[in-house]
């Protein structure tokens, strides 16, 4: 029975991780080639339009921008605190169940000398998963905090180089790290079920791919971005800009930053 269990661990666990990796590689390709087909890409384009609208009158819209980013920072703070708390609980649990003191605990993690290497690997992978989520959410807070300062600065001679595209790079990075942090939480589900066996872990990986595909696929979105320009009006009094910024920059270019 132990031999069968080890074989299942060596086959089903890498296969489940491979399925998740293949899905995210496909998602990354779609995000680069056809961003409007993914929810992440549509959100990036909408945020670009939001930055342009906010910076068109930063004096009037500055408070709204700071409050919006503050909500994002609060969400990242909650998730980062939860991730580091869970990491501490897992580390304390493993330490309390390992005999021989701190030195033997460290050797157990590195070399697996207690005879249960698979069990050690399960907890270590789960710990690294939550630590990854923690680091990503901290980076998301960092970029969002800096963007909140930039959005509240009036565009003019006192702020050389301050453009919507420059500010959007920080918001783009902040949201990317936020998304990666959430993916770390999602990955924790199959790793957590791995504790109960390789078969639940593999089944959870397959189910997770279908759920993520439903969440990541954009449906029935109107992707015509109409951004009003105060300086340029067409014969109807408005200028329709499709997927472009005020300076004519293609919004799809932000996805390659």
UniProtKB/TrEMBL annotation:
The keyword Transmembrane helix applies. It comes from Ceratodon purpureus (Fire moss). This is DUF599 domain-containing protein. PANTHER family: DUF599 FAMILY PROTEIN (PTHR31168:SF1), OS02G0292800 PROTEIN (PTHR31168). The keyword Membrane applies. It holds the Pfam family DUF599. Coiled coil: none annotated. The chain crosses the membrane at residues 7-29, 78-100, 121-141, 185-212. Keywords: Membrane, Transmembrane, Transmembrane helix.
